[in-house]
Amino acid sequence: MAKKKKSQLKPVARGFATTSVPKKVVENEQNTDDTTTNTTVEEAPTSDTLHPTVAHVQSDVPQDHSFDPDQVEEQSLQNLVDKYQEKTEKETLRTIKATEVDRRFSKTLPSLQVDPVLVDRILTLNWESPECERKLLEETEEKLVTRLGITYGVLRRQGFSQDRVDECLRAIQGVDLEEAYEWLYIYCSEDELEEKVAEDLDDSKVPRRKRKELQSPTARSPLPSSNPSPPSAAVTVASKLDANAPVFVPARQRPASDVELPKSGGILPAESTRSSPSRSSSPDIDDLVAEYVRIKMQITDLTARGKPPAHHEPVLVQHLQDKLVVLKSHYFFDEKDAETQYRSERARVDTLLLQSRLRGSSPKLSATQEKKVAKPLSAGPHVEKQDIPAPSDIPDIFDQHEEGLGGMLEILDTLPSEIAGEGGTIIRMRDMVLPKHWSSKTPKTLLAEFVFKVDRYAAVTYSIISGPSRAKRACVMVNWEGKKTDEWGMCDVACHTEIQAEYYVATVALHALTFPATDGFAVGSSGALANHTSFRLLPPVFRDLWDELETDRKLREDLINRQVWANMRNIVEKKIDARPMLMEKNTRATTEAKDPIPVRNLPRNDISSDHVIADFRARQMRPAYQEMLHHRNQLPIAKYKSEILSILDHSQILVLSGETGCGKSTQVPAFILEDQLARGLPCKIYCTEPRRISAVSLAQRVSRELGDSPGAVGTLSSLVGYSIRLESNTTRNTRLAFVTNGIALRMLEGGTGPNGQGTAFDEITHIIIDEVHERSIESDFLLIVLKSLLSQRIILMSATVDADKLSNYFNGCPTLHVPGRTFPVDVRFLEDAIEYADWFIQENSPYAINLHDKSHKNKNRFEWDEDTVYGNDDEDTLVDGGQQISSQPMRLEKRYSYQTINTVNLLDERAIPYELILRLLERLCFEDKESHHFSAAVLIFMPGLGEIRRMNDLLTEHHTFGDENSFRLYPLHSTLSSENQSAVFDIPPQGVRKIVIATNIAETGITIPDITCVIDTGKHREMRFDEKRQLSRLVETFVAKSNAAQRRGRAGRVQNGLCFHLFTKIRHDTLLAEHPLPEMMRLSLSDLSLRIKIMKVKIGTSIEDVLSRALDPPTPVNVQRAISALVEVRALTPSEDITPMGRLLSMLPTDVHLGKFLLTAVLFRCLDPALTIAAALSSKSPFIVPMGMEQEADRAKSSFRVDNSDFLTIHNAFSSWRRASENPSFVRKFCRVNFLSHQNLQQIEELRQQFLGFLVDSSFITVDRNFVRELSRARFGRNRTRFVSVPLPLDSNGSNIALINSALTAGLYPKVLAIDSSSGQMRTISNNQSAAFHPTSVNFGRKPADFGVNHLVYFTLMHSKKMYAWETGPIDDLALVLLCGESEFKLQSNMLSIDRKIRYQLAPKANVALKILRQHLTTILALQLRGRPLTESQVLWYDLATAALGKIKLETGDDSTKLMIKLP
């Protein structure tokens, strides 16, 4: 019990000394501040410089409560630390971890190789370019400081030096991390950047996930320490009690607040180590056995190692032997087991000593030193078992509570709180005794476990560095894998025993590793390892030590962080100081921008009403007026004049249904005009027509009827004018204007009022929508607008309009039906035409249908006719049941001959039977006397201009029809000039017959009064949205019943008529639709969506809302598809706001992707090939594959192959045909030999001219007037195709394949296929679908991986047996990076991505260079789309970007600022 009582009364072992001499530290306070000005922890110049208790000492200094600006500033900074430090550190660590993840991911990405010369030129030009306007920092100072703090923390943690980071943060305009990266990657050397990358990507220690957090970028101790002392003699001399050692001088007692906290000692080489026994048993027994082994080892070292007796210490040996006796008398002591352990340990130490001597790695060790040699401790989990505290930590030979000891030995047992060390240093003593019977983990065990978690291959080694002194000081060394070492030692603190010293230094090391030193901000408790809680397992005395280390760390970290925040605030203040000047500059620019802009107004009526009335009355008296009035009064609608005017007086809207020939198109506008002028009322009447020829011919006719002289329309002397695309004939005197629907919509886009408000519709009093039944997308949209505005009198007119439907749409408005003036028409169908013409075909005829298989048709046929050859995509061209009755014999009435029945069953209805038409004309004009009177004027309806030309050529080459003295041939198409179109109205001389070959323009748009016979092919072309290909295409379809009725009605205007429909009666009765499908239901709505956004009239909240108000609303899916396509090409923003690109695309009536391609090609000056490619993709392919001749056609097509691209192959074939067309007699043969369609190529040229005209009309390209005239002559000329050469300034890069591909990439994106380098498969980047080349592609049968590119662009993607890409071509990665999508340049991760779909890995310098080039190119293209001029600097950037995209070699001349471009 006595022992137990004594142990209870034993003084508590504190973690700090309780008596000491006060030490002056005031002189060192300034040192403390000076040495911590850096944001990193450096080694102190003296042992007391960074003493942990400096703050405690300072706290005892009397405080001055007077106002001190420095204290206020310090408190302000401390508030920043308290408020934002933790948040900043978390964001910093999150950013760094994300960067590491991205870097590892970037290694798996394809590498983008950029020409180093290009990179240098970009960076050089960026240096030379004038500085961009500074961004206005609109956030508060505090927010800016915190954002800058995150940027600073990330950069410093990633290894950039303090000076470099400080320079960067002061130089950049803003505070964001990406801007800082950009600056560093521009101005840092390549070596410096590579060094940082190497540090960040060092993965030599893969299993150690926290290794990077523990290692600071510069080599230094993880904790501050005193200057390391040179190895003292006590470490190397023989182990004995040195008589010359300094005596222990008891120190005077000092207050506890003055006690210095322990610090890690200097980093010294470990020459001696200590290990613990490896046996594992119960704690008490292990402690006794370990103490027995230790004491006996000491006795053996002092007595039994062959040393002279004079060197022995009898007293010490006696005390050690007495201690052995006490141990042996312990109840649990097993002497046999202890002796076994002693022999084992003795043998091990002797073996180590022998090995050291043989290696010569250390001097001859004394017995005392031999016992301290230990093997490195493995950092494995088993260490916990090796490190159970020895009994020496509880009792010792000098223990004053042990019985039997006393007298002089008690003097040796009591050590003072401080002793004098070498060089006059003061060493504080710490009694770090473990509680008795401590069974939990020791500091050494916890350190070993922690190191093992970080690096399982690391070794922990302990060394005793105090020599023979009783004040034990230890050192711990952690040897990480990779030959990196961390070391902690005790320089100015010591313990009573070696094991205490090892525990002490293990605690210091554990704390240092838990909170490693970092660059930039001191991490503190918010660091990545801050959740480490193993210190709670420490014995109480070591937890106290941990708390002391924590207090010291927090004080030092706060001081460091305050200085960092002070620097951040200083940088932000300088940036904010520039804000007033910038705001003043922006205000001045805004004021200048508000200067009045001249508003373009339409011509207004400058003539007073009295003058107009007087002029009209004088006009009525003219003979020409009276003559025309007589003819007008004979029209059926003349009887309804008063009724029409009466309805308009009482109702705002009228639906007028007038049959063909009633005179509604000419008379209703004239009725209104005359009524308004007679009453002296102001009027402006607009009549919209679906076609330009209708607008022009009606204006001329009405002008004549009002008494104007021929050709007066559109002049000051006429009240009538017209306005069509590229041609406007209106004046300030114009009161009645005939315009196309497109022109009417344009009037809604431009503001005519003050500041551009209002529209041209505001001046209109009456608006007439003619031919409403055609249901064009423009006319339907006009109805939406007019219904929303309702500010004018509105008249809706048509021949076959559904009057009740329109009336209901306009809330039950009045309707009026006017009968027509027509004669009976004899209607005959295909079987009647064949029987009448006595025409027949055989199975091998080019007009015969394929009855068996592909090889059956054209087999062994060496001649083929392109009119009867269809492409692979034409099977479904004729909609509405085109093939439903062709596969089975047709049953006809018995009155038809067998020959007629057989011919009807053999005839391919897709073909235009030119021979049958020619035979009908011959029979009608020359053979059938009874029907001869029907041949005076014949109207032939053809699907398109190509067929018109073909028919015209056949008739011209005919021996009789080609005779101008007998027949006049008039082609009629919407693209023909107004003069040529007007000629069809002329009545030929007596004895001369007229043949008009027209499209559906002659169906209702115009009336040719003398037509007596109609030959109707039953087909027309219309735009349809192809669901399979996801694009709008011009397809050939059968007409509806209402169309057929209109066509045959044209033959009964002046007498009884005759009509041949070249389709069967069964088709007419069972397969034809009643009415054509409205365009809004079958077209892509992209163009209309753009028009909705550019209108000055707001009629809905969104595009879908506006279109839902249509007479027949489109499906929401179709609307959303259109919006998505516009967002893809950046014509609209995701919020449906229109962009400059969208405004231009609204003027190009084509697929939006092709429109963007054309605009980009203009900017890159490669317009000619772009026009060809866009036109070809908008029409039929120029390549023909006759059945049975597939291989020959493929070989011919392959001869035009260019760069594995279908697009360039088309351009090459077209260019070859254009050259061949210089010799008209050769071009047909050229097409036949190369399997090209002459008609399709002609159509491509016409579309090219149309697109070019749209570009000119939109003012996006500027050309001289001579070119405009040449373009008009080519577009609207008769017969032969006339070619138009693109002006050289617009096509200077037309031969640069790389630039053409770049324009294609920009236009068609995201229609991109990614090539998998491992499997070689192609996948769409949009939805990762697998795709293959279509058999019609020039790349069919080839491996995509052989092209040497990562991506291909496509135009059409269609699924049949598999997902097929029809037109494809390789593209350069650089074009994707600079021109496509939303780019994200992750500079620190060596990665860039486009829309998060396409990713590359590339070097830092190249990454920032491409980012800069893209920014400048985007700005330049945006300016050019707005029509703004470029500065000199922007021209240089444009040239550089063009050179990069066009693969043009760059050379640097003597003058480094000069950019020289050489074509390869």
Automatic annotation (TrEMBL):
Keyword Secreted carried by entry: no
TM stretches of this protein: none
Region named Disordered: 1-50, 198-234, 249-285, 360-391
Source species of the chain: Suillus discolor
Primary localization: plastid
MF annotations from Gene Ontology: ATP binding; hydrolase activity; RNA binding; RNA helicase activity
UniProt cross-references to InterPro entries, sorted A to Z: DEAD-box_helicase_OB_fold (IPR011709), DEAD/DEAH_box_helicase_dom (IPR011545), Helicase-assoc_dom (IPR007502), Helicase_ATP-bd (IPR014001), Helicase_C-like (IPR001650), P-loop_NTPase (IPR027417)
Domain Helicase C-terminal: from-to ranges: 919-1096
Protein name: RNA helicase
Catalytic activity line of the entry: ATP + H2O = ADP + phosphate + H(+)
Top-level enzyme category: hydrolase
Cell compartments where the protein resides: Plastid, Chloroplast
Domain Helicase ATP-binding residues, every copy: 645-819
EC number in record: 3.6.4.13
Keyword set, alphabetical order: ATP-binding, Chloroplast, Helicase, Hydrolase, Nucleotide-binding, Plastid, RNA-binding, Transit peptide
Bias type Low complexity, positions: 272-283
Entry keyword annotation includes Transit peptide: yes
Superkingdom to which the source organism belongs: Eukaryota
